[in-house]
Specification:
Blueprint (H helix, E strand, L loop, with lengths): L1 E2 L13 E11 L6 H4 L4 E20 L2 E2 L4 E11 L5 E8 L4 H11 L6 H6 L2 E4 L3 E3 L2 E4 L3 E6 L3 E6 L20
Parallel strand pairs: 6-7, 6-8
Antiparallel strand pairs: 1-2, 2-3, 3-4, 3-5, 5-6, 9-10, 10-11
């Protein structure tokens, strides 16, 4: 994920940023959310209630280091996510400094460009970001992000047909 000014263009209103790490998604759809394949596909239920969990291995927002931070975006979207009208709440790790909190809030709200800006066109109700204790675990085939007493999301790899490696879904149209 990143956002930078184009060469030869004046600097962007916000600092250039980049981040790398792990992003995983969960929702109330069956095994694979059709909306993850394309927001134009109908989800399993009347509403898609889910989250994107984020653990940053490295990253910068201008001069602000983002390495080691966690965040999550929790959303409630209509069955056909492309119709918009989403509600969204961001959680940012309470361990973040004031500068890191501001940077992550700017990125995840879409104010600083990048893939999250694309998602803002679908959100009609963005709740205030909450700064909460978060705990990330990576046990190889299982990843988990926890906000004590509020939020817990886990993904577990599915064994592939060869019996040795994990199943993979590739080449999806997903803005993130």
């Amino acid at each position: 994920m990143s956002h930078e000014s184009a060469p030869g263009q004046p600097p962007a209103a916000t600092p250039a940023w980049r981040a790398s790490g792990l992003l995983f998604e969960n929702c109330n759809c069956d095994l694979l959310c059709p909306g993850h394949v394309s927001f134009k596909q109908p989800c399993t239920h009347d509403r898609c209630k889910g989250n994107w969990a984020i653990h940053l291995d490295e990253g910068r927002f201008g001069d602000v280091d983002l390495a080691g931070l966690n965040a999550a975006i929790v959303f409630d979207a209509p069955r056909r996510m492309y119709e918009g009208g989403w509600s969204q709440l961001c959680f940012v790790d309470a361990a973040a400094t004031a500068a890191q909190r501001a940077a992550l809030d700017n990125i995840l709200s879409g104010r600083s460009g990048g893939p999250w800006r694309i998602l803002t066109r679908f959100v009609s109700n963005r709740l205030d970001t909450q700064y909460v204790p978060m705990h990330f675990e990576d046990d190889g085939r299982e990843k988990r992000l926890t906000v004590p007493a509020l939020f817990d999301t886990t993904v577990t790899a599915i064994r592939g047909a060869d019996g040795r490696s994990d199943a993979r879904i590739e080449n999806l149209h997903n803005v993130i």
